[in-house]
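Limitations
The structure tokens in this dataset are predictions for the assembled complex, not deposited experimental models. Users should treat interface geometry with appropriate caution, especially where small molecules or nucleic acid strands are included. An illustrative entry is reproduced here so readers can see what is and is not provided.
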Amino acid sequence: MDRERFLVTLLLTFCVALGVNLGGSLMGSLGAALMHRPPLKTMLQLADELKIWALVAALGGTFAVIRTFEAGVLGRQFADLVRQLLIIGSAFLGAHLGYLIIISLGSNR
Amino acid sequence: MRAARGWGLLFLGLLAGALAVHLCHARRMEELYWEKERLKVDLLETSERLARSEALWADRPGGKICSVEIAIEGEIDDYAKLELERLANEIAATLIGGTIGELEADLVIALLHRRKFSAEGKDYLAVVNWVVLAPQTLFSLSVSPAPADSSGGNGGLPGGAAVF
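Predicted assembly:
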């Protein structure tokens, strides 16, 4: 049960990070087009800039993670530490996948 | 509840449609944007070039007449030709210092056209063939002995003379 909840959290984090990057970049590009700015350039730029914010948004703030790290290191609860690292990795993967999708949409080919 | 859901779906559909259309045309819009930027740069360069050209044009030395030369044709003796050149030069010298662009071509021709000159005891009638209005202005005159009943002077503005 605990493991299932962890997997759900992992997937949720991945999807949130992916959605933040994809949605932010696409909607930003739409806004750029409405304001007569270059849409593809803006989209690529936003995808790059939003990667780190997608990570933060998916993790739901940094304090809880830092506290878990503290508890993991000082309290020697290494299982929690690994879990948090996996969640961060999942968020990073989601954000990076969004970035890659945007890159493929905006590339010249 | 159902209405709210409907509105939500409607806006979601709107956004999805807008995004789909936007993604279809984004590349073309991007190209047009960069073309617009290039044209802006071109326009700026052309405007600057035009401004520089206008400044150069405004500062150009005013094209003024520095000298006048008379070329005389006709079956007359050399002495008479020299005298006629001198007389015509005296009249045409009034053009020296004048700005070429401000001169009236007809009036320039009328200075010498159908004018009667006296040289070596005989009267001659000059007809202007053509005039080159330039810093070194050139008149081409055809001179012939004046008919006995010719009153001389300008007999009206020339019809056949050309100004270059």
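Some entries come with short summary sentences. For this one: The first helix of chain B runs from residue 2 to 58.
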